[in-house]
């Protein structure tokens, strides 16, 4: 019986050893030398702890799956972060030694070093707004205001007279769809849906539906805008995705930061003079974003508008940004608001 127990113990030890692996780790990234957060002005300094004093041939470093550079032997590696993407950077070190390779990884967070400017505004006009419209997208096209609305069974695309609040034309979506952001690009209208991974494309002149497109990435549809060539889509996180308008393929994305803080729940989007203006869901603010790096450059507090509308049971949060290039003014409203405000940002 004792021999059986001893044999069992030996076999168990062998099994556990084979499962855990026998190769010993010789190297690790020295995390004591890393900061929790970096900015564009920083240089990332990386070095390897050589636990067993092995002779290192070289170390290849990758940031977010892109090669950052190579260090000879165990030399310290410096990487300029000015062209990196805001957000978490996954750092992988591949250490080459004695014909072998070992890898180690860590991550850092790159945040904005820009203090956002606080903007002010004046109200130019106040107009009536259909309080049954759960506003998701708002945009001018050839001087006419168009609106995309949400809620299943109530979602639509609308052509409106902003001065009277009258809906001149309404295209209802099938009840299974929850309508979201809209934008005009190349004489086409694009309208997102929330969880259905579908975008509708209409002819901008006839308003007839041309086709449906499926999202190529598993994300929600929130806000939508364009820079004249590409679409930009928010998904309720801190990310804004750059898309090919022909097939919705994701080309790139940015992570949006105000100073050292992620700005999550980015909602309705509007492209104005090379910047992205975005509502932040459930916040009465608009943030102005640099589309190249995700830096919030300015913030507009619109909380006072909430006190100027009629509060009804359906009244929801601020949402909707449209820029009228003819008047150089902004039009803002909210979900089921009874008013729309024309404002000038100072």
Give the full name of the CATH homologous superfamily of the largest domain.
TolB, C-terminal domain
Largest sheet: 5 strands, mixed
Mean pLDDT: 91
Q: Report Rg.
A: 27 Å
State the strand order across the main sheet: 2-9-8-5-6
The global form is: elongated
Overall CATH class of the largest domain: Mainly Beta
State the CATH topology of the largest domain: Neuraminidase
Name given to the CATH architecture of the largest domain:
6 Propeller
Description:
This protein is mostly beta strands. It has 2 domains: 25-110, Immunoglobulins (Immunoglobulin-like, Sandwich), CATH 2.60.40; 117-345, 6 Propeller (Neuraminidase). Helix content is 5%, strand content 52%. It contains 1 helix and 32 strands. It has one helix spanning 2-20; strands at residues 27-29, 37-38, 43-46, 48-50, 58-63, 66-72, 77-80, 87-97, 100-110, 117-119, 121-128, 135-141, 144-149, 156-161, 166-172, 179-185, 188-193, 198-203, 209-214, 224-226, 231-234, 239-243, 250-255, 257-258, 261-262, 266-272, 275-280, 285-289, 296-301, 318-324, 329-334, 339-345. The protein has a 5-stranded mixed beta sheet with strand order 2-9-8-5-6, with no helix packed on it. Strands 10-29-28-27-26 form a 5-stranded mixed beta sheet, with no helix packed on it. The protein is elongated and about 80 Å long. Residues 18-22 have low confidence and may be disordered.
């Amino acid at each position: 019986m004792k021999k059986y127990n001893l044999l069992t113990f030996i076999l168990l030890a062998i099994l556990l050893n084979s499962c855990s692996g026998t190769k010993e780790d010789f190297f690790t990234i020295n995390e004591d030398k890393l900061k929790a957060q970096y900015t564009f002005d920083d240089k990332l300094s990386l070095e390897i702890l050589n636990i067993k004093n092995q002779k290192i041939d070289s170390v290849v470093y990758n940031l977010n799956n892109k090669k950052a550079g190579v260090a000879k032997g165990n030399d310290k590696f410096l990487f300029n972060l000015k062209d990196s993407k805001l957000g978490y950077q996954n750092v992988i070190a591949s250490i080459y030694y004695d014909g072998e390779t070992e890898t180690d990884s860590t991550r850092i967070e790159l945040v904005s070093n820009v203090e956002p400017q606080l903007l002010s505004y004046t109200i130019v006009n106040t107009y009536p707004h259909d309080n049954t419209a759960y506003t998701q997208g708002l945009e001018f096209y050839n001087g006419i205001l168009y609106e995309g609305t949400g809620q299943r069974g109530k979602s639509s695309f609308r052509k409106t007279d902003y001065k009277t609040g009258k809906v001149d034309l309404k295209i209802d979506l099938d009840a299974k769809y929850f309508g979201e952001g809209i934008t005009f690009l190349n004489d086409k209208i694009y309208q997102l849906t929330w969880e259905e991974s579908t975008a509708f494309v209409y002819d901008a002149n006839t308003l007839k539906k041309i086709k449906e497109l499926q999202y190529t990435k598993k994300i929600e549809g929130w806000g939508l805008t364009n820079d004249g060539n590409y679409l930009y889509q928010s998904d309720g996180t801190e990310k804004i995705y750059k898309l090919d308008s022909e097939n919705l393929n994701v080309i790139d994305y940015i992570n949006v930061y105000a100073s050292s803080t992620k700005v999550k729940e980015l909602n309705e989007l509007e492209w104005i003079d090379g910047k992205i203006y975005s509502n932040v869901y459930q916040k009465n603010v608009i943030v102005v974003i640099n589309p190249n790096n995700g830096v919030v450059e300015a913030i507009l507090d619109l909380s006072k508008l909430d006190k100027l509308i009629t509060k009804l049971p359906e009244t929801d949060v601020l949402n909707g940004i449209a820029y009228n290039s003819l008047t150089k003014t902004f039009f803002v409203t909210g979900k089921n608001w009874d008013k729309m405000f024309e404002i000038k940002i100072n």
